[in-house]
Amino acid sequence: MEPLTLVESVLDNLPVAVFAKDANDDFRFVLWNKKQEQITTVKASKAVGRDDYDLFSEESADYFRSVDKAVLKRGKLLEVPEEIIEGKDGQDIHLRTVKIPVIEEETGRRLVVGISEDITEQVQSRAKLESLNKNLLETNQELQETQLQLIQAEKLESIGRLAAGVAHEVKNPLALLLLGVDYLSGGIDPADPNVETILTQMREAVDRADRIVRGLVDFSSQRALTREPVQLHAVIDEVLLLVKHELTRSNTKVSVSIPADLPHVFLDLSKFEQVVINLVINAVHAMSESKSPRLEIMARAEKLSDVIKNQGARKYEVFRSGDNVVTLELIDNGCGIDSGDASRLFDPFFTTKATGVGTGLGLSVARKIVQLHGGELHVSDRPDKKGAIAKLILPTKVDTGKVALTSNFPK
Amino acid sequence: MARKILLVDDEAGFTQLLKMNLEKSGDFEVTIENDSTKAIATARSFQPDVVLLDVVMPGMDGGDVQAQFQSDSILNRVPVIMLTALVDSAELSAGAVAQSGSSIVLPKPVDLSLLLRVIDEATGAA
């Protein structure tokens, strides 16, 4: 074993590169430790006595020399967070370096001492991470767009299903209008008391047809999620107009119980209508065998008190005890939920309906929309097992953090 | 003698205007029933010569009302004309109309002159 001084021994075993240049001797290297040998692949025996121009490209050497001079001029330590030297195979080596001006006590030589840490791996991982993060952001963006497209696709499907019913509801006012025209075209007798009634009825028929057509157009509009303060009652009224035909045909009695002083909820009207239409149509289908189909729609404001987490039913997932919410329940007296289906209700493409009746996207999209509103959707059997309950829990204040389209679909 | 027409349809405005048109167009006595579940009772007391019956109604649909008429020993001889705004032919054939057998089906909006002709034929006045 070659005898070394304590300082030499420490220097050669440091995990960082250490070198020193003599400013009085054209910045020639006077110190070059083992780690510096490893990083530069230049042996100390080759480096000591030579300068940067002997060892590195002219461009690099110019740069090193300018830093060295700056350090001496400043007279204090200078940190270079990142500098690049060429490695053996021409690949970049990234270094974090501090340069210290030193005046050697015994000789009076002015030295520049450098201590460099090889941060190549860190830089590479950082670049990789940045690239991955960029990909992730792009993928997330695509996912959000796909989600909205999926929501819209499901909506178009429900419009298709509602179309015949909506047409029926428009044809009724049209039928009335034609009768009015027939009556009046025979000549108008100013003394005929029917004329006023007919004109009033005709005007109402136009309003009615206009409302339902407008409702359908509003419902089919495609927009990004935009929320506004909404009275839940208004949403339910619009929905009942669009599904009136389905309810009449199935002879479903609907009772709506929504307190007048219910706080506003922040909803995207068209997307939320999609959710409620879906739940109403599901209920109608579930009640097809019921003797007297009955759908109760109830809403109330409440302060959550018993937030239960992970207890089988997983009642409240988003909310905490003390949160003020509005709950909307749709309670039917249909066939309820087959116990085997309960866990799959929200799976995309899961359907209990005949081919062509439903794609199985309805509930999974409905839940997604509710989640985008910062709310929750749960479907379960009634406690008395005489039907099913769809329960929506909605926040009464906007928390934009929760609105962000970030969660995966399908979940 | 005026022919008696019973209108069974939940659309109150429609029945009101149809009654006005019919009464203006001929010698008809028209009674309106907007609640289909009361159609049979109203028909028994009114004894119509012809019934104009809507298909899609809450409570009882046109097919159910038609079935009630057919099982009544007097009313089963009264001709029934179905009026419907249904547009889907599959829905039509799956619904009440198919069961109505000999009934005549007219689409809504109703062509009044066609309706009058059909009423004439049904009541033997043609």
Describe, in plain words, how this protein is organized in 3D:
Chain A is 45% helix and 21% strand. Chain A contains twelve helices and twelve strands. A five-stranded antiparallel beta sheet of chain A has the order 2-1-5-4-3, with helices on both faces. In chain A, strands 7-9-10-12-11 form a five-stranded mixed beta sheet. Residues 310-316 and 400-411 of chain A have low confidence and may be disordered. Mean pLDDT of chain B is 86; it is low at 94-100. Chain B has helices at 12-25, 39-46, 62-70, 89-94, 96-99, 112-122; strands spanning 3-8, 28-33, 50-54, 80-84, 104-107. With 126 residues, chain B is of the alpha/beta class. Helix content of chain B is 41%, strand content 21%. Chain B has a single domain (3-122), classed as Response regulator (Rossmann fold, 3-Layer(aba) Sandwich). In chain B, helix 3 links the parallel strand 3 (50-54) and strand 4 (80-84). In chain B, strands 2-1-3-4-5 form a five-stranded parallel beta sheet, sandwiched between helices. At the A-B interface, helix 6, helix 7 and helix 9 of A face helix 1 of B.
> How many helical stretches of chain B?
6
User: In which order are the strands of the major sheet of chain B placed?
Assistant: 2-1-3-4-5
The assigned CATH architecture of chain B is: 3-Layer(aba) Sandwich
The CATH level-2 architecture of the largest domain in chain A is identified as 2-Layer Sandwich
Biggest sheet of chain B: strands, sense, closure? Answer: 5 strands, parallel
Q: According to CATH, what is the topology of chain B?
A: Rossmann fold
Total E-strand runs of chain A: 12
> Fraction of residues of chain B in helices?
40-55%
Q: Describe the oligomeric state of these chains in a short phrase.
A: heterodimer
Which runs of chain A of at least 5 residues are low in confidence (pLDDT < 50)? Answer: 310-316, 400-411
Fourth-level CATH superfamily of the largest domain in chain A:
Histidine kinase-like ATPase, C-terminal domain
- In total, how many domains does the architecture of chain B comprise? 1
Terminal residue distance of chain B: 15 Å
Output the helix-strand order of chain B: EHEHEHEHHEH
Q: Give the total of beta strands of chain B.
A: 5
**What does the largest sheet of chain A look like?**
5 strands, antiparallel
The first-level CATH class of chain B is given as: Alpha Beta
Strand content of chain B: 15-25%
CATH superfamily of chain B: Response regulator
Which whole number gives the mean pLDDT of chain A?
86
